[in-house]
Amino acid sequence: MRLSDLFFATLRDDPADAEMPSHRLLLRAGYVRPLGSGLYSLLPLGFRVNRRVEQVIREEMDAIGCQEMEMPVVHPAEVWKASGRYFKIGPELARFKDRGDRDMVIAMTHEEVVAILLSELVQSYRQLPVQLYHFQTKFRDEPRARGGLIRVREFVMKDAYSCDRDQAGLDASYEKYRGAYVRIFERLGLDAIMVRSDVGIMGGTGAHEFMVINDFGEDTLVLCDACGYADNQQIAEVQKPSPEAEALQAMEEVATPDTTTIDALAAFLDIPRSKTAKATFFVAGDGRFVVAIVRGDYDVNETKLTNAIKAVGGLRPAQLDEIKARGMEAGYGSPLGATDSLVVVDELVTRSPNLVAGANRVGWHVRNVNVPRDYEPDIVADITSAREGDACITCGSPVKLRKGIEVGNIFKLGTDFTVAAGAEYLDENGDRHPIVMGSYGIGLGRNVACIVEAHHDEKGIAWPEEVAPYPAHLVAIGGNKDPQVVETAERLYAIAAAAGPDREILYDDREESPGVKFTDAELLGMPWILTVSPRSLAAGGVEVTHRATGERSVRSIDEVTAFLEGREPFEASAAAIASAATAGG
RNA sequence: CGGGGCGUGGCGCAAUGGCGGCGCACGUGCUUUGGGAGCACGAGGUUGUGGGUUCAAAUCCCACCGCCCCGACCA
Question: Is A412 within 8 Å of A176 (Cβ atoms)?
């Protein structure tokens, strides 16, 4: 592709409202353009990267026997009503009516359709297991798009579905996908780590997320360097301290003006936060009012709380009047005297004697509150979030917290969808069973952004060869002084073109100054920059620069030809890679 | 949905009540080709939309729309 023909434009200035490096660079280098919030066009360069990422995923899916197909983006609403998700999912699911006034949805994912296909096509255990996948557009009307391609509303996802006759089959399929995902992210140049994740209210028997550590990430990961433990903070467990035994003291009210926060309370009474009990108030989707009690030095983990009370529809923070109506006072709250509430107490609180808790009266707390002496919990469970430095649940070493971006997930769904769709098979004995499903997703655009996050410097992008839109970027300098430059560059370009579509290169044939061409080449980020100039010709050929390391050498026309034809790849020296790794952090 | 910020040419920005500008990018011509070149000429705007105040509004007021950031949310 000649740059004089390419549909793109590089921006000299950073776009004002692009905060993430990947977003800034993809905009500046002319890979993507926004159309609206969370809606992006992929320009030709961006589309080529997307396609190469897609191809890596396709190869690894095919390698585990997963069959590519395609399912519709628009579904009749009945499909989603049958699974129940039409009613469970809020405005995130886009709905509309077709010309016949029929309810329709724009698909967020495709479990329902797979289950329907299974119900139509699978009758015997002999047809199982089967693995299916497609690359298809999803629409999720997210409350807030952010981070360029990281969180968008419309995106292409590879979603795969395993279909097995039983749990053991699902476990085996799940393992295959786990292995495929490890290979995919390695090929994409991403350091993805697998963490256990919440299965949510969709049930299922297990799920993992593949995460890339990134400060702009939306999830928090709990990691242990010592033993390799890695969980999403939503579900991560840590070892909690064993408070020293104390004689239980009598409760005693104490005036504590202006102490609506734990910090203020602890400071006012001159006690550690660990000697206080914190109350937070929620309303579950089914209407139950929930008081969650954790020690003052911990935070409530809403995912754990949701799972502890099996809250269908999740939790929302309670309103002040809802709290008051149940005899409690926000800022000075506790279950003491509370009515009509589900009291959920963190297990550490039950082991921590003589805590200061709210008196449910503005400006007052109560000393020496003990569970279950002073109030009776409805549920005792681990409902706190892991903290930086807490003791690892498996080895006791201090854990660390890191932000992460989810680049893929694997999920043991179970039979919810197949039961709803009537997707059953007959076993060897003629008995009928629901098919057991798993689902496995990878968002393409998000992966493209994460690759840029991991492979860029202050000058621009540095694509790994596996996903680069073109293998090389040819720059001709001084062509007006020396016709041999243009002649040589044109010849090399033609050689690459003749070597097949995969070997096509970018050729900067524009009448621009050398500075512009070099700057753009570094911004666009092809793995190898080939410079033809009077200087390079005098030195014996073409100057070859490795974009990622900056390593530079002059290669003969024959060597470059062998590279362009795909016969002899260029390799960066180990030393250059090591020094680039050190410099890049 | 709550909080904050922003909306002026393709991009980045200035103009705070009185003739809408600057840099880059863009077009034409000449010069220039190893690190975002120079000169000359030129094109490009209903200042997000609607309403209001005023002799006069990009500027002040109201409403709406859109975008970004934080939070809520995230099968």
Answer: no
Cβ contact A370:A351 at 8 Å:
no
Q: Which amino acid is at A374?
A: D
> In this structure, what token pair is assigned to residue A536?
């390079």
Q: Does residue A197 sit in helix, strand or coil?
A: coil
| A314 contact to strand B (CB, 7 A limit) | yes
Q: Which 526-555 residues of chain A approach strand B with CB closer than 7 Å?
A: 531, 533-536, 543, 545
Q: How far apart are the C-alpha atoms of A254 and A435, rounded to whole Å?
A: 61
Q: How many helices (H) and strands (E) does chain A have?
A: 17, 33
> Which residues are registered as beta bridge partners of A403?
A220
In contact, A130 and A432? CB cutoff 8 Å? no
Which value does ipTM take for this structure?
0.92
Prediction pTM value? 0.93
What is the C-alpha radius of gyration for chain A, rounded to an integer number of angstroms? Answer: 29
Degrees to nearest 5, angle at CA A205 with A203 and A210: 100
**Between the CA atoms of A496, A497, A503 and A509, what dihedral angle is there, to the nearest 10 degrees?**
70
Q: For residue A36, which nucleotide's C1' is closest to its Cα?
A: B67
Residues of chain A with pLDDT under 70: 200-203, 583-585
